[in-house]
């Protein structure tokens, strides 16, 4: 490990010799200066890890020295040491982006704590995080081995997301261990879904909260309680993405409830989002409102009737609430929505945000986007950057200022795929990589879930002999023709439609505006 270098500038540096010796005994190399000019020259000529800077020096003052050092080395942490606690001096120092400040007389322990905080923090956090994950590894394995309920799989997903984010933020060799545990968890989850999914539709009163239940069990009770509500659906939004943007939204909202619900299959917008807004399974939509259901083979958009589907659900449950509906696909339209907010009179306001889905698809098609989001950590950072620098951030701010509660969710998540599974179907088989619907589908993998009688699962059948086949884990489908090309092209892209915790166990969050 390289020796850490400290620059200490103080006009009474000779009186600080005991401190210098103490730091040298602790393994630090210490350079000294007794005036601001010398300190600036040393920073220009040499490299340091941190600077301790006396605020009250003759000639070039501490604040003036700070300004010049920051001009030379913007990222170099500078700790101001001062006898004065005057607020304006601290404001000036903080405005110049000091890393910290200490009030004289300082003691050796204060100095050591400051060094740990500013030049050893990353390695300390990394060591602690790695140690904590190692200790919890066997507990997570036990959770995976013994999970028998959806709630237990949700707890596993919450735990894995926590460690995903923690290990992304440190230097760690444990990512592969965590990836292996996620693969094991998804394998167990796929078997659980295959065993239980049909029963959820034979006994709908006993099933977990799923896509068709959101309005009936979440939205309507809030409206009946007199709440002013924004129901925000971020297309293709995972639980880890929610955890990534939560700190940004916490500026305007308190998170009063954070849970997950289960998306229906296929985990695709055409099915899951229409189920949310209609309160029905896709087969029911097709049978009850055939003019509002778009078949797989049809070329028109699959989600053009969402506003009408919301109205059908309000009518069926005899709810007379007025509502507004906005589908945001671009920044300009988002800005127009913000301009309309103060004139809204409806207690229910539905907003669909499509950016994350657009990001996922563009990453698949664009080499540059693949470079920008080459793994989950980069994908999360792009999500944060989108919210922070787009009008969507101002949209949430405006909603909070107007006093609306927000119920934030999604229709499905997405998973990064890396293993190609060969499948054969007729020419009318759909193009989705994570699920296939068609006649005479044959697949060379046992790690699939097959719905041979789709109506028993609440799904329409384009033909009498149609079946649905779902990829699980990190698999994706490709046809024998040009198999190697498609396997290479789509490997490590984010896809949805199949069975994984990332796709099916998705955020459902209640946000209360801050006073």
Amount of beta strand: 15-25%
Spans of at least 5 consecutive residues with low confidence? none
**Helix/strand class:** alpha/beta
Assign a percent range to the helix content: 40-55%
Figure out the total of helices: 20
Lateral arrangement of strands in the main beta sheet: 7-19-10-6-9-8
Number of strands: 19
Output the radius of gyration.
28 Å
**pLDDT averaged over residues:** 91
Shape: elongated
**Termini separation:** 49 Å
Main sheet? 6 strands, mixed
Description:
The chain has 515 residues and is of the alpha/beta class. The chain has helices at 17-25, 36-45, 62-72, 87-95, 108-119, 121-146, 150-168, 175-202, 214-224, 239-249, 269-278, 282-288, 306-316, 331-340, 355-365, 367-372, 376-389, 391-401, 483-490, 501-504, and strands at residues 5-9, 29-33, 50-54, 78-82, 100-103, 229-234, 253-262, 323-328, 348-353, 405-409, 415-416, 419-424, 435-438, 442-443, 448-451, 467-471, 475-478, 494-495, 505-513. A six-stranded mixed beta sheet has the order 7-19-10-6-9-8, with helices on both faces. A five-stranded parallel beta sheet has the order 2-1-3-4-5, with helices on both faces. Helix 4 links the parallel strand 4 and strand 5 (100-103). The chain is elongated, with a radius of gyration of 28 Å. The two termini are 49 Å apart.
């Amino acid at each position: 490990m390289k020796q850490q270098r400290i620059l200490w500038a103080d006009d009474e540096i000779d009186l600080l010799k005991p401190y210098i010796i103490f730091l040298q005994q602790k393994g630090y190399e210490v350079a000294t200066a007794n005036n601001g000019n010398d300190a600036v020259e040393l920073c220009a000529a040499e490299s340091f890890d941190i600077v301790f800077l006396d605020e009250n020096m003759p000639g070039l003052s501490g604040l003036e020295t700070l300004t010049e050092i920051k001009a030379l080395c913007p990222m170099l942490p500078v700790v101001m040491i001062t006898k004065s606690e005057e607020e304006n001096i601290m404001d000036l120092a903080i405005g110049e982006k000091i890393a910290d400040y200490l009030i004289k007389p300082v003691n050796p322990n204060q100095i050591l704590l400051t060094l740990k905080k500013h030049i050893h923090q990353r390695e300390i956090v990394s060591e602690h995080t790695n140690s904590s994950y190692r200790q919890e590894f066997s507990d997570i394995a036990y959770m995976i081995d013994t999970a028998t309920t959806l709630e237990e799989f949700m707890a596993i997903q919450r735990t894995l997301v926590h460690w995903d984010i923690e290990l992304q933020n440190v230097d760690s060799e444990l990512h592969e261990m965590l990836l292996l545990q996620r693969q094991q968890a998804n394998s167990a989850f796929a078997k659980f879904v295959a065993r239980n999914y049909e029963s959820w539709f034979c006994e709908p009163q006993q099933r977990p909260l799923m896509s068709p239940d959101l309005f009936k069990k979440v939205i309507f009770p809030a409206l009946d309680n007199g709440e002013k509500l924004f129901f925000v659906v971020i297309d293709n939004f995972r639980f880890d993405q929610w955890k990534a943007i939560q700190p940004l939204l916490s500026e305007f909202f308190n998170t009063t409830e954070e849970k997950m619900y289960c998306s229906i299959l296929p985990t695709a917008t055409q099915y899951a989002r229409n189920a949310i807004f209609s309160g029905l399974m896709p087969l029911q939509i097709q049978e009850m409102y055939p003019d509002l259901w778009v078949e797989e083979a049809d070329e028109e958009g699959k989600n053009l009737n969402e506003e009408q589907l919301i109205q059908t659900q309000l009518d069926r449950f005899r709810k007379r609430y007025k509502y507004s509906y906005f589908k945001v696909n671009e920044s300009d339209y988002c800005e127009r929505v913000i301009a309309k907010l103060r004139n809204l009179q409806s207690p229910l306001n539905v907003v669909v945000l499509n950016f994350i889905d657009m990001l996922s698809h563009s990453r698949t098609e664009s080499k540059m986007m693949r470079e920008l989001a080459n793994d989950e950590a980069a994908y999360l950072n792009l999500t944060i950057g989108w919210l922070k620098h787009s009008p969507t951030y101002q949209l949430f701010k405006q909603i909070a200022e107007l006093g609306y509660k927000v119920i934030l969710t999604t229709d499905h998540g997405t998973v990064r795929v890396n293993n190609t599974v060969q499948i054969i179907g007729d020419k009318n088989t759909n193009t989705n990589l994570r699920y296939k619907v068609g006649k005479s589908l044959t697949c060379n993998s046992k790690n699939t879930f097959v719905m041979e009688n789709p109506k028993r699962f609440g799904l329409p059948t384009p033909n009498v002999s149609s079946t649905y086949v779902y990829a699980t884990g990190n698999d994706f489908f490709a046809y024998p023709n040009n198999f190697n090309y498609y396997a290479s092209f789509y490997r490590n892209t984010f896809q949805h439609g199949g069975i994984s915790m990332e796709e099916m166990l998705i955020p459902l969050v209640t946000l209360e505006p801050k006073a």
